[in-house]
Amino acid sequence: MPTFITKYVQEKHKKERVAPTDKGFYGVYDHFVYPDFPSRKRVEAELRVPQRPGTVYVLVQYRDLSGLNYVQTCWFFQDKLPAGQEVFRLGSLSPEFPKPVPRVEREIDGDYGLKVADGSDIGAVVNSEFVDLFSSSISSGLLKGAVCEVEDRGTWSDVS
Predict the structure, then answer these.
(1) 4, 126, 144, 151 - which has most CB atoms within 10 Å?
(2) Model's pTM, two decimal places?
């Protein structure tokens, strides 16, 4: 971790302290916001991280037209195709089928982790491994050369 901070974190943010998880992992988190996501469309955006990670966790949160909130975490792991091309494969979804839950927010005051808007237990809403890793992660906005654009980032295309 100290080598990562020295090499990739902006000088003014090097005092940020991130403790690894109990398993020794730490991460870099990125944040995307799409106020509207049209049907039959997809968006592709690059993660703003300095090294290709071995695994990627994604928290997807959205509201349906009636205002119900849904959260799902996806875990992807790096794999090689027979031709040698490196790809990410879906390892798990949690929950497998989303159900309405309270909104999840980033904690700004205090430990910079995740919290549930209604004050309920975060572990009941979001996969505990995701919560632990997020708490042991640094924002991509603190990295050297960071561009802090989060809204409507990426390239849109039709789903075929």
Answers:
(1) 126
(2) 0.82
